[in-house]
Specification:
Length: about 350
């Protein structure tokens, strides 16, 4: 009875074995199927590539080599273009640096040789010239005599602008004979507020006239000399004959030339009686003063600014025909400004 109620063990084992084999076979089937599919795709791609190669008259390995060559050439082109761009950028940077450096050099030379270059000054009597250079570019102001006639010229130094409150007047008489197509001139430095008064007497057998002018600066005088009959190149232009009076107010501080010209074919004699009233700068507040000698005078400027120089000439000497003083004015460059400027450009 006991044996009839027990299930045979072999039956269970036998029934379970096929299930396990079925699962394992299923797994092997899946792997095998995937590999087969990949292999089939590769074969199809290879076949397509071979067909493309045959269509182009190439063998399959040659097609692969051609594609590889095209890829390499494209990479080489991109690399070369990148190198060209970098090279152009470096070239542009160098060009920009050279341009900036050349520009600063040009500015430096313009300041040293042009704006603050040496100048020869012809001073009339009672000249009072305020010199206000930019202390950022100029370290000192120097004057030196060109002729011994510069005796009496003074250089003063101030911490600030001196007042223009000293008024002085003097008279001069000039009698001369002007030949045909000739002229005569006298120079004065006149500050704002000055005044020129002239009485004249022209003596000519044929009642010839002369041209009387007051020209501002050498440029105005040269323009008048180029065309003496043109009146608009000077501060004052007037035809004079016989006797008369002329008065001219000065509105701008500058050098002025009082001149007469003879446009006639004959010589003409003339006498000018000039009375000049001028304003001078007050020198009582000067902390530096130097009388011009052979060694010259040098006035150092502060880098922070505020320091000004004043150049003066003496009063006219009675009985002396020429009361002009000839001096040389020069500026010492502040080299640290130019060196630092170049260093900044280099950086």
């Amino acid at each position: 009875m006991e044996n009839n109620n027990q299930s045979p063990p072999t039956t269970s084992a036998a029934s379970s074995s096929p299930s396990t084999d079925s699962t394992r076979n299923g797994e092997d089937f899946g792997v095998s199927s995937t590999s087969s599919t990949n292999s089939q795709v590769q074969e199809e791609e290879t076949a397509a590539a071979e067909e493309e190669a045959e269509g182009n008259g190439l063998r399959y390995p040659e097609l692969i080599q051609q594609r590889t060559s095209l890829s390499y050439n494209a990479y080489s082109m991109v690399t070369e273009n990148a190198h060209d761009v970098v090279g152009r950028m470096r070239g542009d940077s160098l060009s920009c640096f050279v341009v900036i450096l050349a520009y600063w050099f040009f500015v430096s030379m313009t300041m040293i040789m042009g704006v603050y270059g040496p100048a020869s000054l012809l001073l009339g009597p009672y000249s009072s010239i305020l010199i206000k250079p930019n202390s950022f570019f100029v370290e000192y102001v120097k004057i030196a005599e060109i002729h011994e006639a510069a005796n009496g010229v003074m250089l003063y130094g101030f911490h600030k602008d001196p007042p223009l409150d000293v008024v002085t007047s003097w008279s001069e008489t000039h009698k001369t004979t002007l030949f045909s197509r000739n002229h005569k001139e006298w120079i004065y430095f006149l500050n704002e507020g000055s005044q020129v008064n002239v009485s004249y007497d022209v003596n000519s057998p044929s009642s010839s006239s002369l041209v009387f002018v007051i020209a501002q600066g050498s440029e105005g005088l040269n323009q008048w000399l180029e065309d003496p009959s043109y009146p608009n190149s000077t501060l004052l232009w007037q035809i004079i004959r016989g006797s008369g009076l002329i008065q001219q107010d000065i509105l701008t501080s500058s050098n002025y030339y009082v001149a007469i010209g003879n446009l006639n074919a004959e010589a003409v004699e003339v006498q000018l009686n000039m009375r000049l009233k001028t304003y001078l700068y007050n020198t009582t507040g000067a902390y530096y003063q130097c009388g011009l000698t052979e060694s010259g005078c040098s006035f150092k400027l502060s880098f922070t600014g505020g320091h000004n120089a004043l150049l003066t000439s003496p009063a006219p000497t009675p009985g002396r025909g020429n009361n002009e003083s000839h001096v040389n004015l020069s500026y010492g460059p502040r080299w640290v400004t130019y060196v630092v400027g170049i260093a900044i450009q280099v950086e």
